[in-house]
Write a structure and sequence with these properties.
Elements (H helix, E strand, L loop, with lengths): L7 H11 L12 E6 L10 H19 L3 E3 L10 H10 L3 H10 L4 H4 L5 H18 L15 H16 L3 E11 L4 E2 L5 E3 L5 E11 L2 E7 L10 E4 L4 E7 L2 E6 H8 L5 E8 H4 L3 E4 L3 E7 L12 E3 L5 H12 L12 E2 L7 H9 L8 H16 L1 E2 L8 H15 L3 E6 L5 E2 L6 E11 L4 H13 L1 E3 L4 H10 L3 E2 L1 E2 L14 E2 L8 H7 L13 H9 L9 H17 L4 E5 L3 H15 L8 E5 L2 E3 L2 E2 L10 H8 L1 H10 L7 E3 L1 H23 L6 H22 L3 H22 L7 H15 L4 H10 L21 H24 L5 E6 L2 H12 L5 H8 L3 H4 L3 H14 L4 H9 L4 H7 L1 H8 L2 E6 L17 E4 L1
Parallel strand pairs: 1-2, 1-24, 8-13, 20-25, 24-25, 26-28, 29-30
Antiparallel strand pairs: 3-4, 3-19, 5-18, 6-7, 6-17, 8-14, 9-10, 9-11, 12-13, 15-16, 19-21, 22-23, 26-27, 29-31
Helix pairs in contact: 2-21, 3-6, 7-17, 10-11, 11-12, 14-15, 14-19, 15-19, 16-18, 17-18, 20-21, 21-22, 22-25, 23-24, 23-25, 23-27, 25-26, 28-31, 28-32, 29-31
The structure holds one RNA strand.
Length: 932
RNA sequence: GCGAGGGUUUCAGAGCUUGGCCAAAUGAGCCGGACUUAAGAUCCGGUCCCGCAGGGGUCCGAGGGUUCAAAUCCCUUCCCUCGCACCA
């Protein structure tokens, strides 16, 4: 265990100075408001959560130093069912759950014993979150903290929902859900023990008459009703006769049970063996009187247990029929083709089966074959003209509607696979829930509004826009009420709770007033009050006097902060929360108060594996902070990748980040103690510093935290190294080093605020570094020719080095031969030339008599220079061509440096002064080097 | 299956939008050296292959194509991650 960079007492002292520093309220500064999706405090924070909140904190701190009034608030989302389930499991002494909380989350026994109350869980972890977030140095305004079950927040949610209802965005309807009869509740993905990939499929029941009785055949392909040749029943199954909706249906007993959950009264009145149905007939409008035949592929546990047979288009049906033919039975039944499909003839299923060599109804490959045929027919199939001639996709919908409207068909929902088993061990069914409320995300007008606003929003990174666009198009009705869990009751139908994702869509507005609203009793908070605060609507019903004053203050505060500038959240929330909140803002707030931007995060890995609490693969944030120090954790989390990239928490990498932070401290301390005089080389470093200020600012403006660290830390370090090397052992300039330290500390303050705060104090600066002015580049200190000169020196040093390594002699002297002026002229001319291709450039330049005078050498020089040209960065090439460096002077000035670095004597000459063979090689920005 | 994003040198990760600055930034790891009583601390150097002159060769998931020129553009293919709804 090491407490890095700053000592524990220092850390605590700094936290103390920050205690109230980030409380914020409207001022005459420009505002910047950013929010993160608030946490669901059902467990302890791990380093993955850490990054979610540290990244926005870095931005918040950056903006604050830039002079913005910054609001970074935090609250806790405690709505929903999971925590209720957890408390129930703890109450039931479930060992896994108790161990998770005791060992992994390190909850003390006395606290744990109160966890049979879900509110105790969320209260405990909310406090833990706040405590650990403070340790991580998050610059949050805690006066605005709330939870989603606070009475005042509930009032706010009620207000929101009155508006949604008034805007016709919420409506009542029926909805099929996965349902567990034993739990008497709908079950979600996380509650499924088995069959979690099963989808709810919508079958159309095609009704066939058999005397007075109805045989409902379930199909996913109602358009094939024209091609039915017979029905299939399983001969060994005992079917039931059930009175359903006033008529007697013949279905499997499983089906009777299922249908009873789907809006039908079911009364079983008798049974009939499948074998008794065989060889009787049934009829409907489309196929007349047809026989009921036996088939063993029929599954009584799938839909109604009775199947209509379309042998021309369904491989199962064809095989079953062929089996009967082979026994010499029903040979008069012929498949009826009704769909034209690319690549198939009149009877696609028949062809497919015959070509596949499948022999039996129970062949495993039959499923795949069916899928192939169905897919082909669905995507490219067209009904024959006598059946309407439309594409299958369209015909399917139309036939289904027609059957429902005119021929008594209804819908039956069924899982695509079974069984589906609830976590309680009981089997789950599809149930149609009634009285369910839906958010009408399918509303095209609403979608259009959202899409339009989305187009105007800033999305980071821009790659996520496609996913947002798709989500807007894809969203349909969202069941927005629940029977169980914590939350706000639906105001006009209090038997329902508002579903957790739906009560968290406009709360960013609530943050703006969350501190002040605590002074007002929740009873006062009528919809009119919120209408005034958020929409500026006056009303007779508004309270008067002192309360009204407070409302005015809240209105002012809301208008100051809103709309929020950026919302941060993980990428898995794009398809729900992040898009929902745009919908809700559009429904409630006027255009100028809607979200401005979003930043989407990547996911976290721990040692290469996905970090999830459920698998125990987590590393707690607090543990990380005490193992490595808050600043190391911060720098690693925002520096190992850009926010939107996934990151991997690995010990060795974090460890080396820790060293970097420590190195920064000692480097800065060296800077503070530097006492050298000014030297010409200072000019270069000062110029570079301005460059890094500029680039770091740009990076953080674009939320590129990794890039920012790259520039502000590593690049800066590298230049400082070169600077020191150039001094040849002389002491660094006192003024420049203090200048550097001051800038450097501030550039890294958003990332490593504890360290920065500590060093700032050591520098003797007044006030908190967290509020110090963000460095601004001094344009006057930028000297491009000087930087170019240094670049030339670096490149030459590198050349020299690589030659020496190869030739492996101990050099006595080095002669640097600089290019003659006329080669520089060529260089500049090539840069300016618009001619394409070396040949053309040569032609063009040889027009010039001065150049032509150099004959063959000139041609070579043009070739060399143009090759050289495109090996340089374009802006460097341009700047060199515009203001050619005085190479002779540069090398003469740096003579002692090179002599010192390589321990040789150095001579600098112009190429015309040297008779050496190599002297001819001297080119612009690439002097010839003669080593002897 | 559908939708979105991605596959780069030992690793992480730049670069790819606007093809030539790319053998490919930077950091980590590893190797060697210096400093030290000693270091996991610091500093210096190396880290695809070949080369006793700054050069050459191979390389950016795989396979094709466009181009004088491709990690960068086009096509095909394989693999990975996320989402697919009542769940925070």
């Amino acid at each position: 265990m090491t407490e890095s960079n700053t000592k524990k007492t220092d850390t605590e002292e700094i936290m103390h100075t920050w205690e109230r520093a980030f409380h914020t309220s409207p001022s005459d500064k420009k505002k910047f408001y950013l929010t993160v999706a608030y946490p669901y405090p059902s467990g302890a924070m791990h380093v993955g959560h850490g990054r979610t909140y540290i990244t926005p904190d870095v931005i918040a701190r950056f903006k604050r130093m830039q002079g913005f009034e910054v609001l970074y608030p935090m609250a806790f989302h405690v709505t929903g069912a999971p925590v209720v389930g957890i408390s129930r499991r703890i109450a039931a002494q479930d060992e896994n759950t108790i161990n998770l909380y005791k060992d992994l989350y390190q909850v003390p026994q006395d606290v744990l014993s109160r966890f049979n109350d879900p509110l105790e869980i969320v209260n405990h972890f909310s406090n833990e979150y706040e405590r650990v977030m403070k340790k991580a140095g998050l610059s949050i305004d805690w006066t605005r903290r709330f939870t989603t079950v606070d009475p005042r927040y509930s009032k706010f949610i009620e207000w929101q929902w009155f508006h949604l209802r008034a805007g016709a965005h919420v409506a009542k309807g029926a909805h099929p859900v996965r349902y567990c009869p034993q739990c008497d509740n709908p079950i979600g993905d996380h509650d499924i023990l088995e069959g979690d990939t099963a989808e709810v499929q919508k079958f159309t029941l095609v009704m066939f008459r058999r005397g007075d009785e109805i045989i409902p055949c379930a199909t996913l392909r109602p358009e094939t009703v024209y091609g039915v040749t017979n029905l299939w029943v399983h001969p060994d199954v005992e079917y039931v006769k059930a009175k359903i909706d006033g008529q007697v249906w013949i279905i499997s007993s499983e089906a009777a049970n299922k249908i009873s959950l789907q809006d039908h009264d079911v009364e079983v009145v008798g049974t009939i063996p499948g074998s008794d149905l065989v060889d009787t007939t049934a009829n409907n409008k489309f196929c007349g009187e047809i026989p009921i035949l036996p088939a063993v592929f029929v599954d009584p546990d799938m839909a109604t247990g009775v199947v209509m047979s379309v042998p021309a288009h369904a491989p199962f049906d064809y095989i079953a029929l062929r089996d009967l033919w082979n026994q010499g039975m029903y040979t008069s039944i012929n498949p009826i083709g009704l769909i034209q499909v690319d690549g198939y003839g009149e009877h696609p299923a028949v062809e497919a089966v015959e070509n596949s060599g499948i022999l039996h109804q129970s062949d495993q490959n039959l499923e795949d074959l069916t899928a192939q045929v169905y897919l082909a027919e669905h995507s490219t199939g067209k009904m024959y003209p006598q059946y309407g001639g439309k594409p299958v996709k369209i015909a399917r919908e139309e036939v289904a509607a027609m059957l429902t409207e005119q021929y008594g068909s209804t819908i039956m929902y069924e899982f695509s696979q079974h069984p589906v088993i609830c976590r309680c061990g009981s089997r789950a069914y599809v149930k149609v829930l009634h009285d369910q409320w839906f958010l009408q995300y399918s509303d095209q007008e609403w979608k259009d509004q959202v899409q339009k606003h989305l187009n105007a929003m800033s999305l980071v990174p821009h790659e996520v826009r496609a996913e947002f666009d798709r989500t807007v198009g894809w969203l349909k009705e969202w069941a927005c009420t629940r029977r169980v869990g914590l939350g706000t009751k639906l105001p006009w139908d209090p038997s329902w709770l508002i579903e957790p994702l739906s009560d968290s869509t406009v709360y960013m507005a609530y943050y703006t007033i969350a501190a002040k609203i605590k002074e007002i009793e929740s009873e006062v908070l009528t919809p009119e009050v919120f209408d005034y605060i958020f929409l500026g609507v006056e009303s007779e019903k508004l309270p008067k006097g002192e309360v009204r004053e407070k409302l005015n203050a809240m209105r002012t505060e809301f208008l100051y902060w809103y709309p929020y500038d950026y919302r941060f959240s993980a990428k898995d929330l794009i398809s729900n929360h992040l898009t929902f909140q745009v919908f809700h803002h559009c429904a409630i707030f006027p255009e100028h108060l809607r979200p401005q931007g979003m930043v989407v995060f990547g996911m976290g890995l721990l040692n290469g594996a996905k970090m999830t609490s459920s698998k125990g693969n987590v590393y707690l944030l607090e543990e990380a902070i005490s193992d490595f120090g808050a600043d190391t954790v911060r720098m690693f989390l925002v520096g190992s990748g850009e926010p939107w990239q996934d990151f991997d928490w690995r010990y060795e990498l974090v460890k080396s980040t820790q060293k970097q932070v420590e190195r920064f401290v000692s480097t800065i301390q060296e800077c503070m103690n530097a006492n050298g005089a000014d030297t010409p080389i200072d000019h270069w470093l000062r110029s570079r510093i301005q460059e890094y200020i500029k680039l770091t600012t740009l990076a953080l403006d674009a939320f590129q935290t990794r890039q920012a660290i790259h520039l502000a830390f590593f690049s800066m370090e590298r230049d400082l190294r070169w600077y020191k090397k150039r001094l040849c052992g002389a002491a660094p300039s006192r003024t420049l080093m203090r200048e550097l330290a001051s800038v450097w500390i501030r550039l890294l303050c958003p990332i490593i605020p504890f360290t920065a705060e500590q060093l700032w104090k050591e520098m003797g600066e007044e006030g908190l570094c967290s509020f110090a002015a963000w460095p601004v580049p001094d344009e006057a200190a930028i000297d491009i020719p000087c930087e170019n000169a240094e670049e030339l020196l670096m490149r030459t040093e590198e050349d020299l080095d690589s030659i020496l390594r190869i030739i492996q002699i101990t050099p006595k002297s080095v002669t640097i031969v600089v290019a003659p002026e006329w080669k520089w002229e060529i260089f500049s001319k090539i840069q300016q030339s618009s001619a394409q291709g070396t040949g053309n450039i040569i032609k063009e330049l040889m027009q010039d008599p001065d150049i032509r005078a150099h004959g063959e050498a000139a041609v070579d020089a043009v070739k060399d220079c143009s090759a050289l040209m495109h090996r340089l960065p374009p802006d460097l090439a341009l700047s060199l061509a515009t203001t050619p460096p005085h190479e002779m002077k540069i090398f003469c000035d740096a003579k002692s440096f090179i002599e010192h670095a390589f321990s040789v004597s150095v001579t600098v000459v112009s190429s015309d002064e040297s008779a050496h063979d190599k002297a001819k090689q001297a080119a612009p920005f690439k002097p010839a080097l003669i080593i002897e």
